[in-house]
Design goal:
heterodimer, B: 3 helices
């Protein structure tokens, strides 16, 4: 196997903290929306939501400051758009055909992220920022901020939270489906060369370079 | 965790400096715009509150009767009917009573 470093350590740590804070946030957010518990239960839910929200906000701010180059790279990747993306969305990455009909359709070559991942990335970037900023106002100064703006921020918080929560099962399912990528994000950061070449050929072709490792034989690209 | 077992990685930095600065500046601006917008809203709201409280103080200074116990109607009530402030009659008539119904609802 010829491994490619796909997710560096700082990205994996960021993703872990995001995972550990977003799961309780999504669960407690839904509980706060439907209010099924007693007064004490709802209070505890609210407290957990606030604490997890602080953890997620600090994680995002710290990563943006400490790894600003990766954030810029991510934004540049996520918001790049071409005819390939249109073609990808026309066949939805070939996933419905694969899962429902068991047949393989041709898919345009993708960069590090495919078009669906780019859409998800844009939602996470915009929605996450909206969640953090509106959450701060709703928590800190709901009494001091103008009433209509607090109402608007509450709606924005709700919609962003619901959209990102709705993405969650899709993200988890496809993450486990692409198991090599799953292991890369969760464990060692590496994907096998053949896996990357199959799913992300443009990335491998344009952006991947050999790395000198201690005494190990480099296999040519 | 990461013992550099990979043989390939992303080329050190494939974004040009110009593109990096453009995307980074756009990102920082996109973050700063809502914060600036909200701060200005908050400031304008505080201005309104300050103007409102100034107006109330002005009204107060212009008013003939500025405190409730100087109100002629109240003075007349105590003189002709209620007796003294906090007296028995006034307590019966003016005091508001509450019943705790919170425990009945559940």
């Amino acid at each position: 196997m010829r491994p490619i470093l796909k997710h560096p350590l700082n990205v994996r740590i960021f993703h872990y903290i995001l995972l550990l804070s977003f799961l309780p946030l999504a669960a407690t957010g839904l509980l706060l929306f439907f209010k099924p518990l007693s007064q004490e239960g709802m209070q505890l839910t609210y407290d957990v939501h606030i604490i997890a929200g602080i953890v997620m906000a600090l994680d995002a701010v710290a990563f943006t400051i400490m790894a600003f180059d990766r954030v810029v790279l991510f934004i540049a990747r996520v918001f790049s758009f071409s005819g390939r993306d249109v073609k990808w969305f026309m066949v939805l990455g070939g996933y419905p055909q694969k899962f429902l009909l068991g047949k393989k359709v041709p898919i345009p070559p993708m960069n590090k992220y495919n078009s669906g991942q780019k859409l998800f990335g844009a939602c996470v970037l915009i929605g996450g920022t909206v969640l953090i900023l509106s959450g701060l106002v709703l928590w800190f100064i709901p009494h001091a901020a103008p009433r209509d703006i607090v109402w608007f921020l509450g709606q924005a918080h709700l919609v962003s939270g619901l959209v990102l929560t709705a993405f969650l099962p899709v993200h988890l399912f496809l993450a486990v489906y692409r198991f090599d990528d799953f292991k890369a994000m969760m464990i060692h950061g590496n994907v096998p060369y053949h896996d990357a070449a199959e799913y992300t050929p443009l990335w491998v072709k344009n952006e991947i370079a050999p790395v000198a490792t201690n005494g190990e034989q480099l296999t040519s690209k | 965790m990461n013992k550099k077992k990979h043989l390939f990685a992303e080329d050190s930095f494939f974004l040009s400096r110009r593109k990096f600065m453009a995307v980074g500046a756009a990102f920082v601006a996109a973050l700063a715009i809502p914060i600036g917008w909200f701060t200005s809203k908050l400031e304008r709201r505080n201005e309104y509150i300050k103007a409102r409280s100034q107006g109330l103080y002005k009204d107060d200074s212009l008013a003939k009767t500025r405190v409730s116990h100087a109100n002629p109607a109240v003075e007349k009530y105590y003189k002709e009917f209620g007796g003294e402030p906090l007296g028995h009659m006034s307590h019966e008539l003016l005091h508001t009573h509450f019943v705790d119904r919170t425990k009945l609802s559940s």
